[in-house]
Design brief:
This is ATP-dependent helicase. One of its GO terms (molecular function) is 3'-5' DNA helicase activity. One of its GO terms (biological process) is recombinational repair. InterPro entries: (+)RNA_virus_helicase_core_dom, DNA_helicase_UvrD/REP, P-loop_NTPase, UvrD-like_ATP-bd. Pfam families: Viral_helicase1. The protein is of the alpha/beta class. The chain folds into four domains: about 200 residues, no CATH class; about 130 residues, P-loop containing nucleotide triphosphate hydrolases (Rossmann fold), CATH 3.40.50; about 160 residues, no CATH class; about 150 residues, P-loop containing nucleotide triphosphate hydrolases (Rossmann fold), CATH 3.40.50. Strands 5-6-4-1-7-8 form a six-stranded mixed sheet, with helices on one face. Strand 19, helix 25 and strand 20 form a beta-alpha-beta unit. Helix 13 packs across helix 14. The chain is globular and about 115 Å long. The structure holds adenosine-5'-triphosphate.
């Protein structure tokens, strides 16, 4: 009892110490807010001066002060989270943020005698979401992304550097709630201001991992681990390539890396950072993290189905179709289609008003390409017949230039042919007169209505959507796909393109078509001229205040064709066609690519890897591996490892850091059929809702998605039903995986998809075995038995 009281006293004292520091930081922040407010008022006053120079200066001041205030207000909550106590450093030099920069301790920092090793703490640093200096420019808080903060993340007991004690501080508003310490040099007796260094708690990481999950990811800024920090701070020279199993923090690391890169070189990354995620669900799950890291507008998080402007797809094709659409064989088909579509009938909307770009798809009355051009020039009727037109078209299409960009050439060759027919060609021997005659001919003919409407029908301005719609006709597609796709693939592809709406895989086809057609990139919406752009410099180019982070990101994304840095999450899932689409957005970018081949839902990982290599070009790569699973307890990780052994024999599982003592539960259906499955799923979901504080995910085969949502009706929003492909990247406190066999049989990559499903839970897992799972007496499906 007495011992516990002593611990509590030490804990309270340490909390008190941190509270004092936090109070000091808040006082300083308040001063800064007052300063910012003063600046704003002062600037407003100056408005009365009235000279143009004074007005511009006022505007600049208001702008800066507004940004400052905004930032301070935003960062006010929970922004001080760490502290390190360091040995004296090797050199006495201070870095630009006022902190010592040396990583290694000074030679005389440690004293050893027969009874042990001793040291005096030479420096204490507090780490937070932004840096705060006191009035004398000494650091009260160091920004987590600053070099001086790196030891907070890098130091480990094996390689402690100067760090003796690493402390995570939990606070709410202005109140410090607790501290958790990790000792990096447990063998050392260290003193701080003459007192022995206190150590509180069992370490911050375990405390963080034990918390209940919500529907959004939280940032891990206070508990980033050393191997993760190496990735986050890796120099952005070329391609940073990260592999790691489920739950190793790949997504978290990728998001924190975006924040780090912006901090480190805001000027460079004002060109934008694009984060590509496989599904909209993962986008909304991760979206909360960046603003909370203190980043604004420059980062766009996009799902693969929303990467192309105007396309917003979240429907999935059946695996056999997705395989065809994603394959690089599609390139040959699209090349043919982009040219062949010139001869296809215009959709109704286009027919109604030729030249109208509005393209709604659908099948039109087969108008087809015109086979006769008739004009009147020099008082003569001139005609080009079907054969002549065909020859001209063939001629124009000779090279590989984008079809829409060939229209002027088509127009010229038509005029050439008509001119030859007119007999005017040899009329003048004087070249100048001949040229004049020709140009008046061209002008007459090319402004004639019959010529113009012919050209629109014969060489229409094609949109990617129109070509894709044209591919929905099986016979036509068969021609374009000859010797590339087999008849079954062609049939399935055409059928899927006849369905209304776009699938996620269609979007990459649209993007490829846009390139093949040479569709003009949408003109950049020019930002309104703002005199402050010149006054404030790029660092200060922060969002206009009334625009939200998301709105700004969307606007920038819409305007942007390419980005300065591209981060690809779940990279193992990009098809070759998707790699091409993403690659076009980062031709001059640096890249961070994170993924796990063992979770790939793509049936031909080698083909996808080849396309990835093409997208990344010859840029040098730095490879990193993440090896620790922070999500799953060991009990769940062990079960998932059985599926990994089937899916990818020899592939190692990441090491789980914690164990809950709760084994996964198995439930077999009381009787065959959907009703029994519905009852079992609902009962398990209800039970788990009672067991965990956070969220419950029910993962089913893709074609049971809607059904499963119905089974869970009325259970509230802590529980969600997901198709197996949608579960990627997400996590829940508890999951119910329904019929492993159904998930595994869904596609050639089914076992890897099942592996994903089994690795979503942070606490509890129930597996419900259907008939096809052949459960044993304990309800364990055959796929999960030893
Ligand atoms: N250093 C850390 N401290 C606390 N939590 C962490 C840390 N690293 C990762 N996590 C948590 O572990 C979970 C898994 O992280 P994340 O989703 O980034 O992993 P992943 O490698 O992308 O997984 P998957 O491949 O399954 O999508 C998240 O809840 C994340 O917040």
């Amino acid at each position: 009892m007495a011992a516990q009281e002593a611990v509590d006293t030490v804990r309270d004292r340490e909390i008190g110490v941190e509270q004092e520091h936090l109070d000091q930081v808040y006082r300083r922040l308040e001063e800064k807010i007052h300063e910012a407010e003063f600046l704003m008022n002062d600037a407003a006053q100056r408005g009365h001066v009235g000279t143009p120079g004074a007005l511009a200066e006022r505007d600049a001041q208001v702008f800066r002060a507004g940004i400052h205030l905004n930032r301070l207000n935003n960062e006010f909550e929970d922004f001080l989270f760490g502290r390190i106590d360091l040995l004296y450093g090797k050199d006495g030099e201070k870095g630009p943020d006022g902190a010592y920069t040396s990583v290694e301790p000074a030679e005389d920092a440690l004293r050893a005698d027969d009874s042990g090793t001793y040291a005096e703490i030479g420096e204490t640093l507090h780490i937070g979401r932004i840096g705060v200096l006191d009035a004398d420019y000494a650091p009260l808080v160091i920004d987590w992304r600053a070099p001086a903060a790196a030891p907070f993340y890098r130091s480990t007991p094996v390689d402690p550097g100067r760090v003796v004690r690493r402390r995570v501080i939990r606070s709410k508003g202005r109140k410090v709630l607790g501290v958790e310490d990790d000792l990096m040099r447990p063998e050392l007796t260290a003193t701080l201001d003459g007192h022995e260094l206190a150590v509180i708690g069992d370490g911050a990481l375990m405390a963080a991992l034990g918390q209940a999950r919500s529907h959004t990811m939280r940032d891990i800024v206070s508990s980033i681990q050393a191997e993760q920090d190496l990735v986050i701070r890796a120099p952005a020279a070329s391609v940073t390539y990260v592999e790691g199993g489920p739950g190793t923090g790949k997504t978290a690391v990728a998001l924190h890396r975006a924040a780090y890169l912006l901090y480190q070189d805001r000027r460079r990354y004002s060109g934008g950072i694009l984060i590509v995620s496989p599904t909209p669900l993962l986008v909304s799950y991760t979206e909360g993290v960046l603003p909370s890291l203190g980043e604004e507008g420059q980062v766009a998080i996009r799902a693969l189905g929303s990467l192309v402007d105007g396309a917003e797809a979240d429907a999935y094709d059946e695996p056999a179709v997705a395989r065809v659409k994603g394959s690089s064989r599609m390139l040959a088909v699209l090349r043919k289609a982009a040219r062949g579509a010139l001869e296809t009938p215009a959709p109704k909307a286009v027919q109604a008003e030729l030249g109208d770009e509005e393209d709604e798809g659908g099948t039109a009355a087969p108008q087809g390409t015109p086979t006769l051009l008739r004009v009147v020039a020099f008082n003569r009727r001139l005609e080009l017949n079907a054969d002549e037109l065909k020859r001209i078209r063939h001629n124009v299409l000779g090279g590989t230039a984008p079809v829409n960009l060939l229209r002027p050439r088509a127009r010229r060759l038509l005029l050439d042919a008509l001119y030859t027919k007119s007999g005017a060609a040899g009329r003048h021997s004087d070249p100048q007169l001949a040229a004049e005659l020709r140009s008046s001919f061209d002008e007459d003919v090319s402004t004639e209505d019959s010529f113009l409407s012919f050209l629109d029908a014969w060489w229409p301005e094609l949109t990617p959507r129109r070509v894709l719609d044209a591919m929905a006709d099986e016979k036509r597609l068969g021609r374009w796909a000859r010797r590339v796709l087999n008849p079954g693939e062609t049939r399935r592809l055409a059928r899927s393109l006849r369905r209304p709406g776009l699938s996620v895989h269609d979007v990459a086809l649209l993007d490829e078509l846009a390139t093949l057609l040479g569709t003009q990139a949408r003109p950049r919406k020019k930002r309104e001229y703002d005199p402050l752009d010149q006054l404030t410099g790029l660092e200060e180019l922060m969002p206009v205040r009334e625009e939200t982070q998301r709105e700004r990101a969307e606007r920038l994304a819409a305007e942007r064709v390419e980005y300065a840095h591209v981060i690809v999450d779940e990279a193992q899932d990009l098809t070759p066609m998707q790699w091409r689409m993403v690659g076009r957005r980062g031709r001059h970018a640096t890249w961070t690519v994170v993924g796990d081949p063992a979770q790939s839902s793509w049936s031909d990982p080698d083909e996808a890897a080849a396309a990835r290599d093409e997208a990344l070009g010859t840029r040098p790569r730095r490879r990193f591996e993440l090896t620790v699973n922070y999500r799953n307890p060991a009990e769940i990780a062990e079960l998932a490892a059985k599926v990994l052994a089937l899916a990818m024999p020899g592939k190692e599982s990441p090491r789980a850091v914690r164990s809950t003592g709760v084994e996964p539960r198995f439930v077999a259906l009381a009787e065959p059929g959907t009703a029994a499955m519905a009852a079992a799923v609902r009962a398990e979901a209800e039970r788990l809702l009672g067991e965990v504080d956070g969220t419950v995910g029910v993962v089913v085969a893709m074609d049971r998605r809607k059904q499963a949502a119905g089974w869970l009706g009325g259970l509230g929003d802590r529980v969600v039903a997901l198709g197996s492909l949608e579960a990627k990247g997400l996590e829940y406190d508890a999951t119910v995986v329904v019929s492993p066999a159904e998930i595994a049989d869904e596609s050639p990559a089914g076992l890897r998809v099942l592996y994903v499903a089994l690795t979503r839970s942070t606490q509890a897992l129930t597996v419900i075995a259907g008939e096809r799972d052949l459960p044993d007496a304990d309800g364990v499906p055959d796929l999960l038995r030893d």
